[in-house]
Each structure stands twice: as C-alpha cells, then as structure tokens.
Amino acid sequence: MKDYTMKVILFLFTICAAQGAVHMVGGFREIPLEDVPKDPYLQKEIDTGLQIAATRMNAVKTANGTKNEKPLKILQLLQVFSQVVSGVNYKLVVKVDIDGQNKTCGMCVTHLAPWLNGGTWLLRPCSENDPCSPFIPRDHPRSPRSVSLLGGPHEVDTNDNMAQQAAQWAVEHINKMSNSLFMQSLLKVTHATEQVINGLRYHFLLTTVFTSCRNAPENHHKTLSECLATTESKPQECDVSVIYSQNKYTMENFKCKPHREAVENVQKRSAVARMEILGGDNHDYLPHGDDKCAEHVPAFKEFKIQYDRLYGSPAEEARRFKIFCDNMEKVKIIQSVEQGSAQYGATKFADLSEEEFKKMHLGFKPPVSLKRQWPQAKIPEGPIPDSWDWREHNAVTPVKNQGWCGSCWAFSTTGNIEGQWAINSPSHQLLSLSEQELVDCDKLDQGCNGGFMYDAYEAIKDLGGIETETDYKYTGEDGKCQFNKSEVVAKVTGAVNISKNEEDMAAWLYKNGPISIGINSFPMQFYKWGIAHPWKFFCDPNALDHGVLIVGYGKKGKEPYWIIKNSWGSNWGREGYYYIYRGDGSCGLNTMCSSATVA
Ligand SMILES: *[C@@H]1O[C@H](CO)[C@@H](O)[C@H](O)[C@H]1NC(C)=O
Ligand SMILES: *[C@@H]1O[C@H](CO)[C@@H](O)[C@H](O)[C@H]1NC(C)=O
Ligand SMILES: *[C@@H]1O[C@H](CO)[C@@H](O)[C@H](O)[C@H]1NC(C)=O
Ligand SMILES: *[C@@H]1O[C@H](CO)[C@@H](O)[C@H](O)[C@H]1NC(C)=O
Questions:
Q1: What is the pLDDT of residue 431?
Q2: In this protein, which residues make up the domain named Peptidase C1A papain C-terminal (predicted)?
Q3: What is the DSSP string of 50-74?
Q4: 408, 539, 587, 593: which is the annotated catalytic residue?
C-alpha cells in the first residue's frame, strides 16, 4: 500500500513538473504514446480508464437491447492527454468499432484521489457530439461525489435522459403493484445512482404524489398535467431500484412512505413539475371582503398540512377553500345543536361539497321492493353485560377504506360475515373477506353505485360463498366478475332481520356478533370524536344513506353508546370508528338491522 502511494506521488510529481515547464499549470498535456509502455503505473491507469469506458458503453448497448448484439470494441489507442486535478483527468482518443463501423471517439475519465484506497473513477463525455457521448452519463455538475468505483454505483445527474426514463417506468410499475385507488405520478427524482452491470442498475429516491386519476392501466402513462393532484394528494418518498437490460426494465425492489417534508417543500414553491401550488402565506384564494371566510384561513392551512393536500391550480385551491369555508360554517351549526359529547371539525372530508361527499363515500340504497324477505331473528333471553366490544374477541378485522366508490353496503356485509365466521362457524377463524366480489358479481346490487345488505347476503348465498380480501382484491371500481369458486373460504346459509328495539339489538349482538345497519350519515362527514347525539331535525331517521357495522356497545357516564365500524379508513373519526348515542334511534340506526347466518 505504502509502495503504491509512493508511486502515485512520484507519478503526479512527474506530470506536474513536466506541465509546469511546458504549459500553464492545470492544463491538459499530451503524453506521447511511446512513453506509455515505459511507465507501468501510467500503462495501468490508461488500461483501467479504457476498461471503465468500454464496460459502460457495452452496458448501455446491452441495456438498449441492440439487435445483432456485438460488443463495442476498442481497436486502437490514438492519443493520450492528462491533467492534474485532485487526481488525474485523462482524455483518451481511441478508434472503436461501434456496430461494425470504425469511429474515432474520446473517452474522458478521471481518477480522483488515487491515494485514498485506490481512489475512484469518474466517466464523462468529452464533448456533446462525440460518438462516445451517448454511452456516457452526464455527471452532476455540482456534486463532487459523482464518482464511480470500478463496478460500483455512481451518482448520475437526476435530469439524465436514461435515468428519467427509468424513473418514469418505476413509478408506472409501482402503480401496477399498488392496490391504492389513486394513481401516483412522478414529481421529482431526488437522487439517482447508476451501476454498470450486465445492463444498468439504477437506484433512485423519488418523490411521487397521488393524483385525482384512478389507478387504472389507461391512466398510467398520463402526466401530472393530465392527472392533477387534488383532494387526496399525498406526496410519497420512494426508494427504488431498477435494472435496465435488453431494452427491458425490471424492478429489483421498492419502498414508498408518506413524505411530509415534501408537502411542506412543495407548498413553499409556486410551481413544481408543471403543477402550480398556492401556499405559504399567500392568501389569493380569499375572496376580497369575505370576512366570514377570513377566520377559516389558518384552519385551512392546518388542514392542508394534516391531510397532505396539494391542489392542481390556484383556481382549484380557491374553489376548495370556498367549500372548506362553507363546511366550517355548517360544522358550527351541527356543533351548536349537538346533544352529546361529539366534536365536529375539519375531517379529511372537509374540502368536499355535500354532493361530492355523498357520491363518493356513501352508497346505501334502500331497495324499492325487497327481492327477499328474511326471517325475524330470535332475541336471546337473559341478562347481558353493561358493555361489550367484539373487537376484543377476535371478531372484527381492521378498518378498511371504500375509497371513491359507493360500496359501503359491501363493507357492511363483509364486516358482518367476518364476525359470523369468526364467532359461529366451526373453524372460528377471523378472515378478511372480499368486498370486490360483491361489487363485481352481486347483480342484485349496483356495485359502486350503491347496494343493500339484505340483497348482498342473497347474492353470496347464490354465488356459493365469498373469497378473501387477498384472493379477490379491492380495486374500488366496477369490474368484471372474477369469482373463483375454488377460492371460497366462507359460506352464507341465509340471513335474519333484527329487531328495531335497541335493547333487543344489544342482546342479539352480545350473543351472536356484529350487526349490519343502515344509517343517516349527515353528521359523519365532520365527526372527529366523542359520542355523537345529533338532533333529530338534522339527522332524519327515515333518510338512510350509509351502510355500516355495529361491533359493540357501552355507557360513558350517562351516555349509552354504540360502537360503529365505518369504511372510510382509520384516519377518519376515532381510529375509523363512530360512537353514537344508544336508545333513541339516532339517525335511524335501528331501522334496518340485519345479519347473515353461517353454518
Ligand atoms: C439508449 O436508450 C436510451 C433510452 O431509450 C436513449 O436515450 C439512448 O440514446 C440510447 N443510447 C444509445 C447509445 O443508443
Ligand atoms: C476497422 O479497423 C480495423 C483495424 O483497426 C480494420 O481491420 C477494419 O477493416 C476496419 N473496418 C472498417 C469498416 O473500416
Ligand atoms: C381458481 O383458483 C384456483 C386455486 O387458487 C387456481 O388454481 C385456479 O387457477 C383458479 N382459476 C381461475 C380461472 O383463475
Ligand atoms: C325487519 O323487521 C322490522 C321490524 O323489526 C320490519 O319493520 C321490517 O319490515 C323488516 N324488514 C325486512 C326486510 O324483513
């Protein structure tokens, strides 16, 4: 090692001395070709430089999947130049055979800090129109770390064409692999390295953002200007590794996580990747002289940060702020007439209009005429405990999210059957069951346009059972029925209609399991916590519009309550649950109670 260091120093000294004598210090100096073999150190330097350049060039050829694949061959070294930097720059002029044609090209390599563990090599194009330059990545202009150990990864410019294409492919692939309802788009390549293998391996840090477009194949190639980031725009940071070889990309691995910092950074700037974002202290969205809305500006800012909101344009942001403001006025009224301990406020739905909210998050349709009349459930006799919670008895799966599809009825149904299967089937297994099977295959109901639990039991019975969530994944849109009978894990034998009397309901629930119910969801858009007890005038018991699942009951002080599992994700309400007053038919919760039966 010492010996090597001495050689390097001596070598550098020789070049410097020669340069000092002939040229301006720091310029390129031509080394006569016949001198190269006389100096074993120099010979080794040049061989390594040529090897690095040729390896990279061949990797690009392999990556691009050239037909009649012929490795590129270095035929002859024509000229050598060197320049001392914090290491040595070499410019090697060579004759190469590129696809059967002899060309003269330059290979510019730098051997940085050769005295540190052998140093690191860096490859650059010598000039834009050199025949070698398409094979060689532009290096990052500001990064002194853009170096390459022979065979190791090296940093590349995040704007490099090939790197950008690989990053775009990666995001498309992530969309394909993801069961998210919304498509994410590439906002920025934060960091990129490339490694020359049999082809090229890219490692990226990417910032992506969820857009308003559905995560569907026909949208995957769309850009951010076509699929704007709007209400559910959560930036993500993805750590991704992609291989490009034979004109094909393959994903080695990827991991995405929410990127809070990105939200804040993006909001500080006015335009990012063709997206205009209003933020910071800019109050352009506040209509002049609108004093009523002025008080909601700080809450709106907080809301945007809490729920990772990015809006596609200043106009969209202004529109959303207006809706937010109207909603916060509505919240004041709901809160003022609340008879229980519930708190209402800016939930994740606070920037949706009532119409949008109804269309996207409900979907309960009481049928005009029932296709099937289910028998009345037997109410068990005897005392019941003061409180009961099926979540504590392995009968309730984690809270799910119906997304922007009116499929609440399917979630209410699966939630009920999950409980029945865990409690009353011989296997006593708690399985997460498929809502998508109902959305796609239950022809008695209308998929994302709504449905009804009574019919869903019948549909599952007729189909011959229900698959698991894993085997029949939720997509949140109407699709072709892909029911596979051999993947059925639970069967339904029928259903029962449960009493309107809330004491009977509790007795039935304690003995048998969670109950599917219809409810008027009006106050739920803004429910945050506490026990809701809305005034009847605000929550008409005859206007049911949502299907949910009662999983337990209890009493806090003088307030008896039901525990209701909702399907709006766990970041709504109390970890996805709604607590509502028990005993006076609040919001019609007792008017359509049912359960499947299993054997
Ligand atoms: C290889 O393919 C990339 C991406 O299609 C392209 O940008 C590049 O110019 C190609 N390089 C060569 C040497 O053909
Ligand atoms: C390329 O150069 C090699 C020798 O360096 C020679 O044998 C060959 O004929 C040349 N090919 C063409 C197409 O000029
Ligand atoms: C149905 O599921 C079974 C078991 O998983 C599988 O072997 C079969 O290929 C599936 N059939 C279809 C048509 O997908
Ligand atoms: C369910 O039972 C209630 C009475 O508890 C009754 O009013 C209602 O019509 C029944 N519905 C069905 C579908 O059987």
A1: 97
A2: 384-597
A3: HHHHHHHHHHHHHHTT-TT----EE
A4: 408
Q: Are 460 and 438 a contacting pair, CB within 8 Å?
A: yes
Check whether 296 has a pLDDT greater than 80. Answer: yes
**Burial of 490 (C-beta count, 10 Å sphere; 0-12/13-18/19+):** buried
Catalytic-role residue among 546, 587, 590, 593: 546
The span from the CA of 175 to the CA of 371, in Å, is 40
- Higher-pLDDT residue of 311, 549: 549
Average the pLDDT over 327-335 and give the result.
88
Residues with CB under 6 A from ligand 2: 75-76, 102
State the average pLDDT over residues 315-321. 84
pLDDT in tens, 46-89: 998 998 888 888 888 888 886 656 888 899 999 998 877 667 88
- Residues belonging to the chain: 599
User: Which residues, in sequence order, are bridge partners of residue 159?
Assistant: none
State the pLDDT confidence band at 155, using cuts at 50, 70 and 90. confident
What value does the mean pLDDT take over residues 103-119? Answer: 80
CA gap 441, 455 in Å, rounded: 12
- What top-level class would CATH report for the domain 161-270? alpha beta
332: pLDDT strictly greater than 90: no
Mean of the per-residue pLDDT values for the chain?
A: 83
Minimal-distance CA residue to ligand 4 atom 10: 497
* Residue 377, Cβ density class (10 Å: 0-12 exposed, 13-18 middle, ≥19 buried): buried
Contact 96, 103 (CB under 8 A): yes
Run of H or E including 509: helix 502-512
Quote the CA–CA distance of 475 and 216 in Å, as a whole number: 9
Say whether 566 is catalytic: yes
Position of tokens 């099926």?
390
Q: Give the pLDDT of residue 538.
A: 77
Nearest to 479 by CA among 439, 525, 435, 536: 439
Q: In which residue ranges of the chain is CATH 3.10.450.10 found?
A: 2-144, 161-270
- Helical segments of 270-353, H only: 291-294, 297-306, 314-336
Kindly name the residue from 215, 416, 566, 590 that is annotated as catalytic.
566
**Spelled out in words, what is the top-level CATH class assigned to the domain 356-598?**
alpha beta
* Residue 408 a catalytic site member: yes
Q: Regarding beta strands 546-556 and 154-155, do their DSSP bridges make them parallel or antiparallel, or are they unpaired?
A: unpaired
> Does 2-144 carry CATH code 3.40.50.300?
no
d(CA 320, CA 322): 5
Q: Is 326 in the pocket of ligand 3 (CB under 6 A)?
A: no
Sequence letter at residue 176: K
Q: Does residue 122 contact residue 108 with C-beta atoms inside 8 Å?
A: no
Q: Whose CA is nearest to atom 1 of ligand 3?
A: 484
Is 546 annotated as catalytic? yes
Does the predicted TM-score (pTM) go above 0.70? no
pLDDT mean over 89-96: 91
Q: Helix 408-424 crosses helix 453-463 at what angle (to 10 degrees)?
A: 60
pLDDT for 230: 54
3-class DSSP state of 555: strand
Within the chain, which residue ranges are assigned CATH 3.90.70.10?
356-598
- Ligand number nearest CA of 483 is 3
